[in-house]
Amino acid sequence: MARAAEENGADALSLINTLIGMVIDTKKREPVLTNKVGGLSGPAIRPVAVKMVWQVAKIVKIPIIGIGGIEKLDDALQFFIAGASAIQIGTANFYDPELCVNLVEEIDNYLKQNNFNSVLELKGNF
């Protein structure tokens, strides 16, 4: 899908966002949600999101925006090391509205302390 998007003119890709999940009430033996399934987001999906960024970064040349469970500097760095050119914060904004502003500053400090000029230099070679 990523390769097809790139070949058909996509300027960038965003990976991944919400996964679909289900929780079952074992006493009632039925889904908890009226729709039966619903969105799973936040820290629970981060390992899947990082893996998908890494996987796609190996096959496309266009920028990738890493999305999924970013709450702190280490989370953001994982996406950049996996191959993301940028990140997006979703769920964490609900309980920490200042996160984006603080994270930009933390990333900038990290880059300076480790002699990097850009997050693009963080990408791993694995």
Strand numbers in spatial order across the main sheet:
1-6-7
Please tally the helical runs, counting DSSP H or I stretches of 4 or more residues.
Answer: 5
Please bin the fraction of helical residues.
25-40%
Mean pLDDT: 96
| Count of β-strands | 7
Structural category is alpha/beta
Q: Cα-atom Rg, whole angstroms?
A: 17 Å
Low-confidence stretches: none
Written as H for each helix and E for each strand, in order along the chain, the element string is: HEEEEEHEHEHH
**What's the end-to-end separation, in Å?**
22 Å
Strand content: 15-25%
For this structure, the quaternary state is single chain
Would you give an account of this structure?
The chain has five helices and seven strands. The protein is globular. It has a domain at about 60-120. The longest helix is centred in the C-terminal third of the chain and has 15 residues, at about 100-115. The strands form three sheets. The protein has a three-stranded parallel β-sheet. The protein has a two-stranded antiparallel sheet with strand order 2-5. Strands 3-4 form a two-stranded antiparallel ribbon. A hairpin with a 4-residue loop joins β3 and β4 (about 30). Helix content is about 35%, strand content about 15%. It is α/β, with parallel strands linked by helices and about 130 residues long.
